[in-house]
Write a structure and sequence with these properties.
CATH topology of the largest domain: Nucleotidyltransferase, domain 5
Helix content: 25-40%
Largest sheet: 6 strands, mixed
CATH superfamily of the largest domain: ATPase, nucleotide binding domain
Radius of gyration: 20 Å
Distance between the termini: 19 Å
Strand content: 15-25%
Bound molecules: adenosine-5'-diphosphate, magnesium ion
Number of strands: 13
Number of domains: 2
Number of helices: 13
CATH class of the largest domain: Alpha Beta
């Protein structure tokens, strides 16, 4: 019998915008995407997931309820994807479901992606692989980023490249050129800092919209260089890799503290700063922290940040991964399809040089169909 090499990847990141579902076929020389579906989260699910990212009363009850709602949304995305591709559950070997990160504390030995893989398997009739990050953390790693091994598998070429994923948080993969002395060097990768998360939060606070469509609002503002320098003095940016971060650090409370230190308390006695200039400064913060990390390499960008035009333009030489054959909104979900396949084949999914783990590890737990 032919090996079933079709895997579904489900990715819902720190932007909490919804879930991207991709059906990947690994039977050929190159990974092929057979289809993509994006299902936005309902505003109720979005709000409950965002609330779970901070401590509060009744967390266990709320997490339980949110895990059920999340698996239902995931199941719906899988249904939409199967309908789109004309395939059935029997045609798919497994689903790789990242889950929703509600706490990431590798320094304390844990990372928690809310999920309900048992329910997702019941809803879809497909095996589910989940909890990809914990094993790497247990082995002393950051548990993140996990996409660099996949980036290396599909994007490595005879020239050095940087692949940058701009989700809520941004992460970079530094790929050495193949067939050169440099190729012996390890693939490196780390979270560069905020991607869209502060942009989204500031935009929502001042315009009521969950994100700045095409970056049009921020494009009309002017960068406050002094504020930018203050933001860039955050110690995380200068920390050597391996490193990973999340909304525990880069959130509006962190940003409000920086504004206050800068003497621009909103509505208070301090200096006033136009909200749109702040947005432009946040665009520059994401762009500058990425540019500092890629170190002059050819840069290929994926994730929703591709659609923020001033952000994309502010990263020198940036091109979309579409230019090298992969839709930027599918890269991360494809990576989790690939990670599910690695788990099924008992192959490692982490790169110890990236995460800092003691060694390569098979990542994820399997919930059979
Ligand atoms: N048309 C658009 N214009 C501007 N920004 C966009 C657009 N589409 C998506 N984005 C940005 O991308 C984010 C979602 O990116 P995504 O890669 O899904 O991140 P995550 O992995 O964190 O969910 C949105 O929150 C928004 O900031
Ligand atoms: Mg998303």
């Amino acid at each position: 019998m032919l090996l079933n090499e079709r895997y579904i990847g489900l990715m819902s990141g720190t932007s909490v915008d919804g879930v991207d579902a991709v059906l990947a076929d690994f039977s050929g020389h190159r990974v092929a995407s057979l289809g993509h579906a994006h299902l936005p989260f309902s505003s109720a699910l979005r709000a409950s997931l965002q609330a779970l990212m901070q401590s509060g009363a009744d967390e266990i009850e709320r997490a339980g309820d949110a895990s059920v709602a999340l698996a239902q949304a995931y199941g719906e995305a899988v249904r939409a994807l199967l309908a789109k591709t004309g395939l059935t559950s029997k045609d798919v070997a497994a689903i790789g479901a990242h889950g929703q990160t509600i706490r990431h504390r590798p320094e304390r030995g844990f990372t928690w992606q809310l999920n309900h893989p048992a329910l997702l398997s019941e809803l879809t009739g497909i095996a589910v692989v989940a909890d990809f990050r914990s094993r790497d953390v247990a082995a002393g790693g950051q548990g993140a980023p996990l996409v660099p091994a996949f980036h290396a598998a599909v994007f490595q070429s005879d020239a050095p490249r940087a692949v940058v994923n701009i989700g809520g948080i941004a992460n970079v993969t530094l790929l050495p050129a193949t067939g050169s002395p440099e190729a012996a060097q390890p693939v490196l990768g780390f979270d560069t800092g905020p991607g869209n998360t502060l942009l989204d939060a500031w935009c929502e606070r001042h315009t009521g919209k969950p994100f700045d469509e095409r970056g049009a609002w921020g494009a009309t503002g002017r960068v406050d260089e002094a504020l930018l320098a203050r933001l860039l003095s955050e110690p995380y940016f200068a920390k050597p890799a391996p490193k990973s971060t999340g909304r525990e650090r880069f959130n509006l409370a962190w940003f409000d503290a920086a504004l206050a230190a800068h003497g621009v308390a909103e509505g208070a006695s301090g200096r006033m700063l136009n909200p749109v200039d702040v947005q432009a400064t946040l665009v520059a913060l994401t762009a500058r922290s990425i540019a500092n990390a890629v170190d002059g390499r050819a840069v290929f960008v994926c994730g929703g940040g591709v659609f923020n035009e001033p952000l994309f333009r502010a990263i020198p030489g940036a091109r979309s991964t579409a230019d090298i054959g992969v839709d930027p909104m599918q890269v991360e979900a494809l990576a989790f399809a690939w990670l599910a396949r690695q788990c099924f084949n008992s192959e490692p999914g982490n790169l110890p040089a990236v995460t800092g783990a003691r060694g390569p590890r098979v990542l994820g737990a399997v919930y059979p169909a």
